[in-house]
Amino acid sequence: MEDPNPQAPPPALSTKKEKAFGKLNNNLLSLQPKSMPFSIPSLFRAFLCLGLVTCSFSGVANDGIYGDSTELHADLAQVLTCEGDRETYKRLANALTKVYYNDPSDPALTGWKKVEGNPYVAEFTMPTPVDIYGHSASTLIMAGDGIMAVLNGDLVDSLSKQLNLRVSDVPLASHIRTRAVQSLDLGHGMRVDVTQTVSTITSHPGKTLVGCEYRLVY
Fold it and tell me: How far apart are CA 92 and CA 86, in angstroms?
């Protein structure tokens, strides 16, 4: 059942806060309505970030500020195709959080706009489309630990074949296709699992989401 009064989440908790909430997250039941492009455990961290703490990205280079739109798009292309690391993802997510809260402090984000819609995700339009796997996208969705581009058309099967993805093994998440890309050891019993994802979402009929999740695991 969907939460009748949810709020769209900021992108992710900082590493220290994620670790503090790790036990709660790992015990959460994996119920997955099709209105979500990622699993509930990933989104759970984002809801905690919104409701219990002020998200801190002080460890992110330049506090998420980009020198220009070219630099931002370079990071975006890396993050969407799972070629970035968690710090690149966090820097980009922190920049997009400025758009979510209507903070105009980064000139590289001029023309970016928040879209109201699915309450489980944060959605943005960008003035310059990004090309990903031979398709163009001008809309992004951010949820949990991932960022995804919104593509026109039902491309789940073709992208899954192209990217060698499989159906997610999370209960009630057959609309999600994934591939484990790499696992980055952070030490102290922590790692980052990088997972390529293609999904549909009920709030966007006729669209396909493709991107990457950078999930902190304890």
Answer: 10
- Answer whether 60's CB lies under 8 Å from 90's CB: yes
* pTM of the entire predicted model: 0.72
3-state SS track over the chain: CCCCCCCCCCCCCCHHHHHHCHHHHHCCCCCCCCCCCCCHHHHHHHHHHHHHCCCCCCCCHHHHCCCCHHHHHHHHHHHHCCCCCHHHHHHHHHHHHHHHCCCCCCHHHCCCEEECCCCCCEEEEEEEEEEECCEEEEEEEEECCEEEEEEECCCHHHHHHHHCCEECCCCCCCCEEEEEEEEEEEECCEEEEEEEEEECCCCCCCEEEEEEEEEEEC
State the Cα–Cα distance between residues 212 and 203, nearest whole angstrom: 20
Cα-trace Rg, the chain: 16
pLDDT band per the 50, 70, 90 thresholds, residue 18: very low
pLDDT value of residue 97: 92
